[in-house]
Specification:
The structure is a homodimer.
Chain A: E1 12-19, H1 23-31, H2 33-39, E2 46-52, E3 59-65, E4 71-72, E5 77-83, E6 87-91, E7 107-115, E8 118-126, H3 130-138, H4 141-159
Antiparallel strand pairs in A: 1-8, 2-3, 3-4, 3-5, 5-6, 6-7, 7-8
């Protein structure tokens, strides 16, 4: 499971942090749609729908709503790798059943590594080219995924 | 392993045939780069290079050469699902390590189902949209994959 960590700084964005909650609880919060809706989208935006079929080729889809009520259309992707409590890989370049999609944007790798009583949490967003990486950076990857991680940690603790 | 067979006739192309060679030999011919070079490209074209890292996220790449010596640049994709002797799924929408690519074209599912002493062989090419399917049809999917299958069967028998 190591080589998805081969990071290309021109193409990838990375958020890494040690958090004080066990991998098992973060995993639960990532893999149950009702849980995920509670933390996935930085407030005041919300995740109003979530579909999870937790296996390679299974759907991963979220629908987000702005505080003004604007709903972003879902863009269903699929899981690529599922290693319970340790690693989750998904992409929007393929839909359910691995069908290619016309406008790929990213593959995400999320690693949950035990670290003392907590977790070394690493989220990697991989893009096809520098333009994709830049666009994601300008969309606020670090701030957005960082805020979502704060929300994730708080929520996951409530599951413990 | 059944649901990759959910075929959408608007988006997918399918070649299905019962052939008189065992799944294990077809599998060998598909998964060893030296074997694959022998049959993969309809003659008089040739496959002159082949890279195979047979695991989800591992590279699958071929380089083809025309009878006039023109070499098509390789377009490395990756495997998505590997079920020994039964099923192979790969795509050019993601490169090695599942990195998205700018111009996805297809995901291929190849099924090797025992049928008497032979194999029911099914190759499915899935596209993002009708345009992709049409383009592939016009490129000669059925003829090309059919000829390659003739070559595959002949070569696989020599492995028996």
């Amino acid at each position: 499971m190591s080589d998805s960590r081969e990071i290309d700084p021109e193409l990838d964005l990375v958020l890494e942090r040690v958090v004080d909650v066990r991998p098992e609880l973060l995993w639960k919060a990532w893999t149950d749609p009702e849980h995920l809706k509670r933390w996935f989208t930085p407030k005041p935006w919300e995740t109003v729908e979530c579909e999870i079929d937790l296996r390679p080729g299974g759907v991963f889809s979220t629908t987000m709503r702005s505080p003004e009520g604007e709903v972003l259309p879902a863009n269903p992707g699929c899981y690529l790798e599922v290693v319970e409590n340790r690693k989750l890989v998904f992409t929007d370049a393929l839909g359910p059943g691995f069908r290619p999609k016309a406008s790929p944007f990213m593959t995400a790798v999320v690693l949950f590594e035990p670290d003392g009583t907590g977790t070394r949490y690493t989220a990697i967003a991989m893009h096809a080219d520098e333009e994709g990486r830049q666009k994601h950076e300008e969309m606020g990857f670090l701030t957005g995924w960082g805020k979502a991680l704060d929300q994730l940690v708080e929520f996951a603790k409530s599951l413990g």
